[in-house]
């Protein structure tokens, strides 16, 4: 991949978009020299060229908020990178997760709200009350919502069907949270099954 980069075109400093591998949120934009890119690959920790310090630096070398490398993609022109990472702590120096006021994944936002309501119990919160009732009540609610999805699917009103689907997904997320899991665990399993499906294996195994 490195040999395909047009270093001359980008003046030996390639723009690198940093994206959270799980939530797909864009975290920051940095610039890499070939040395910084090689260090990123060899250490699995993202390194940049600092235009203010005029040297290579590892993201989080002072704060500890490093970016663990997941994958690297080169664009079609060979002059910019998309780097997927698993961030440790907040990425922005202002103390926020991202340098951009932007989130790509609504489900990840909802999971953050659910997590907050579980950690910081609020009396009037439906999420907090369901967590207090325990796994039996949450699982029962998932079953009820699944039944309502089936009933709505057999009716002609798509708006009702979509609403019931939303209720089912929401309560499924509550159940996942109770078991200390996230929707990404489900997505990972689906991706794993999709690979097997390409090999003519049973998707549901």
Any overview of this molecule?
By secondary structure, this protein is of the alpha+beta class. It has six helices and six strands, in the order ββαββββααααα. The strands form two sheets. The protein has a four-stranded mixed beta sheet with strand order 2-1-6-5, covered by helices on one side. A hairpin with a 5-residue loop joins strand 1 and strand 2 (26-32). The model has no long low-confidence stretch (mean pLDDT 89). One of its GO terms (biological process) is L-histidine biosynthetic process. Keywords: Amino-acid biosynthesis, ATP-binding, Cytoplasm, Histidine biosynthesis, Hydrolase, Multifunctional enzyme, Nucleotide-binding. One of its GO terms (molecular function) is phosphoribosyl-ATP diphosphatase activity. This is Histidine biosynthesis bifunctional protein HisIE.
Instruction: Characterize the main sheet.
Output: 4 strands, mixed
Radius of gyration: 22 Å
> So what's the overall shape?
elongated
Mean pLDDT: 89
Could you say which structural class the secondary elements and strand pairing correspond to? alpha+beta
CATH topology assignment of the largest domain: Helix Hairpins
Strand line-up of the largest beta sheet = 2-1-6-5
Number of helices: 6
Percent range for helical residues?
40-55%
One letter per element, helices H and strands E, the order comes to EEHEEEEHHHHH
Q: Separation of termini? A: 35 Å
Reported CATH architecture of the largest domain:
Orthogonal Bundle
Beta-strand segment tally: 6
Give the class-level CATH name of the largest domain: Mainly Alpha
Low-confidence stretches: none
Instruction: Give the full name of the CATH homologous superfamily of the largest domain.
Output: MazG-like
The total number of structural domains is 2
> Beta-sheet strand percentage?
15-25%
Subcellular location: Cytoplasm
Main location: cytoplasm
Family: Belongs to the PRA-PH family. In the C-terminal section; belongs to the PRA-PH family.
Enzyme class: hydrolase
